[in-house]
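User: Structure with adenosine-5'-diphosphate, tokens only please.
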Amino acid sequence: MTRAKPNILITGTPGVGKSTLCSEVLKCVDFEWLEISKIAKSRDCLSGYDEKLHCPILDEDKIIDELDPIVESGGKIIEYHGCDFFPERWFDVVFVLRTNNTVLYDRLKERGYNDLKIRQNVECEIFQSILEEAMESYDQKIVSELHNNDTKDMENNIKTVVDWINEWSKITGKKN
Ligand SMILES: Nc1ncnc2c1ncn2[C@@H]1O[C@H](COP(=O)(O)OP(=O)(O)O)[C@@H](O)[C@H]1O
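Assistant:
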């Protein structure tokens, strides 16, 4: 059965602009934003804390169990800095945000991350780990890379996602 609305995954290394893009897109379409990091905290889907990187460890199975019943119906924008553990059937499109290393370094420094955490994330971006993870986990035809270094890029990216949603509704004849 086709969903009434599609599900969208916005992924990428921390700091590439996922939350900013989601909040802007949500001003234009009536979708629900599922921020996996926040939901994991509020619904007790964490399995510990990484003391070195100063970040909680996600209980992937638990969050899937929690969200599966609500994601199936569609109309969700899911945001997380990883993507290989979500069920493939959840998503109609996957956008991977990318940012240049020096820009990303500055954003993460500004965020107050420690040096190890900054280095690991910048390396993750250099090796395009999340893009490869997405390409390996989903049909490559539904995976798109979006460069997000400055405000012009952000404007383009908002338009790309909103246009994609509108195009989907035209093709399926369903309203967003
Ligand atoms: N295209 C952009 N141009 C300039 N600054 C940006 C852009 N996208 C995001 N930022 C800034 O970078 C920082 C990280 O963005 P955020 O959306 O929180 O990233 P993520 O959700 O991927 O961790 C924020 O301070 C945000 O304002």
